[in-house]
Design a protein that fits this description.
alpha/beta, 35% helix
């Protein structure tokens, strides 16, 4: 089966400080994957979830900068205050774009406080080509927001080649037909990514972790959900929790 379309789905709730850089990185990654496979359709769906700050304006301005031929950006607005519901709305919108069949599509998930690398779409495309159903991408905190001590601790606990296989919504890919088979993301306030992967495991799908296309995410200690990545960082790096 040939991959015909890949879409990034990115929920955003009051991310005016970070969403611009997130979209800029996605635009670069979109151009890179099109250079690898010119006929591929590439898109980004940004889901504005009850945004009360300047996120919506920034998103629309960044997407208006344009895409390479064959790519495009879509904005969806919801008022769920739920990352699972927002991600689900983004997936639903993505599946309406283009005319590719579900088994020719890939949904690459990220977050509005994260920056994908230039080869991010390429890594997800390669997973589809390799017959992967669910790709568990890796993330690392933004070292610019870490103290030197925290950076060293991170490097010591994440040595080169270390493949933890954790689940991160900021870097999670799913073949579209498998996502539909699983019933999509649950409308949950957090851990919708972990829930989806648990159901994928129960269904016997092929789940593969990778270090390719590692995403850089905010190192803030207070996030948009009470038990997300920010909570992990606050617990693991308490000396910098005041940032």
């Amino acid at each position: 089966m040939m991959l015909r379309r890949i879409d990034a789905v990115v929920p955003a709730h009051d991310e005016e400080d970070l969403v611009g850089a997130s979209i800029d990185a996605l635009l670069v990654a979109g151009a890179v994957v099109l250079a690898h496979r010119p006929g591929l359709e590439v898109g980004v769906v940004i889901v504005l979830d009850d945004c009360r700050d300047d996120t919506a304006r920034i998103v629309r301005e960044r997407l208006a900068r344009g895409w390479e031929p064959g790519a495009g950006g879509v904005v969806v607005s919801v008022t769920e205050r739920s990352v699972g519901a927002a991600r689900g709305a983004g997936v639903a919108a993505a599946l309406q774009l283009g005319d590719a069949a579900d088994d020719e599509r890939w949904i690459a998930n990220s977050d509005a406080d994260s920056r994908v690398p230039a080869d991010w779409f390429v890594a997800h495309m390669a997973a589809f080509d390799a017959g992967v159903d669910v790709l568990l991408g890796t993330v690392r905190p933004d070292f610019d927001e870490f103290s030197e001590r925290d950076v060293q601790h991170w490097l010591a606990t994440h040595p080169a080649g270390h493949l933890p296989g954790n689940v991160h919504g900021a870097n999670l890919g799913v073949r579209a037909d498998r996502l539909r088979q699983l019933g999509g993301f649950g409308a949950m306030p957090e851990h919708e990514d972990v829930d989806l992967v648990a159901r994928a495991r129960a269904a016997g799908l092929r789940i593969v972790p990778t270090l390719d296309g590692m995403v850089t995410t905010s190192a803030r200690r207070r996030g948009r959900t009470p038990g997300g990545y920010a909570a992990f960082l606050a617990a693991e790096y308490p000396l910098a929790a005041s940032s």
